[in-house]
Write a structure and sequence with these properties.
The complex is a heterodimer of chains A (about 140) and B (about 60). Chain A is an all-alpha fold. Chain A has one domain. Chain A contains 8 helices and no strands. The radius of gyration of chain A is 17 Å and the shape is elongated. Chain B has one domain. The radius of gyration of chain B is 15 Å and the shape is flat. The chains are: A mainly alpha (about 140), B mainly alpha (about 60). The interface between A and B is medium-sized, with 27 and 16 residues.
């Protein structure tokens, strides 16, 4: 790697701030990809929105289950944590999935896993947005 | 939209899942278009092959 690229990366890494990192993380959690949009990373923002949003929407359209936060069961709570990762899609779940969940069929069961996976993927993108915002990652 | 996704076969659901996860992982872990494309292709195929392989391994127990 030549010196100019190294210097540019060091400048980028130094340009971050804690406030920018937190803003990007919260934005990215609320709407997948928005955190990277705040950081002007257009291609990542688009890909994350399409992948997380597509997976979450597909999961709901397949009538997958959405976990509530008041269950005493530990696995349900883990599912709730994963589902909450989808941000706005969690709060719009009942609007998107007007017919309600149907996990008695295989497609509904797949839908439950897809929605939870979308949430976990989004949490990974949120961590990345936070790191970029803090200047720890270019 | 509901009818579109609820009519997916098992393989189509697997392919959709693999596509979204592989693409996100490629953008999270690699830099540069070529590196990302290679990683995406590798992860996508690995998801499909491993799932089909495990499916075949479980097949005798379903009888």
């Amino acid at each position: 790697m030549n010196e100019a690229v190294k210097q540019e990366q060091q400048e980028q890494q130094g340009a971050g701030s804690s406030a920018l990192g937190i803003t990007a993380a919260v934005a990215g959690w609320a709407i997948p990809g928005l955190g990277h949009l705040v950081l002007r990373q257009w291609s990542k923002a688009l890909v994350y929105f399409l992948c997380v949003g597509g997976l979450a929407t597909a999961g709901l359209a397949m009538r997958g289950g959405v976990f509530g936060g008041n269950s005493p069961d530990m696995f349900d709570r883990l599912g709730f944590f994963a589902d909450m990762g989808t941000g706005v899609f969690y709060f719009l779940a009942h609007t998107i999935q007007s017919a309600g969940p149907d996990v008695a069929h295989a497609s509904g069961d797949y839908g439950t896993r897809m929605f939870a996976t979308a949430g976990m993927l989004n949490l990974l993108t949120v961590l990345e947005a936070y790191e970029i915002g803090r200047g720890r990652r270019a | 939209m509901n009818s579109l996704f609820s009519g997916l076969t098992h393989f189509q659901a697997l392919a959709l899942f693999s596509l979204a996860v592989s693409l996100t992982f490629a953008f999270l872990s690699k830099r540069g278009a070529l590196e990302r494309a290679k990683y995406f292709a590798w992860a996508f195929l690995a998801f499909l092959l491993v799932a089909i392989g495990i499916g075949w391994l479980m097949y005798p127990f379903s009888q």
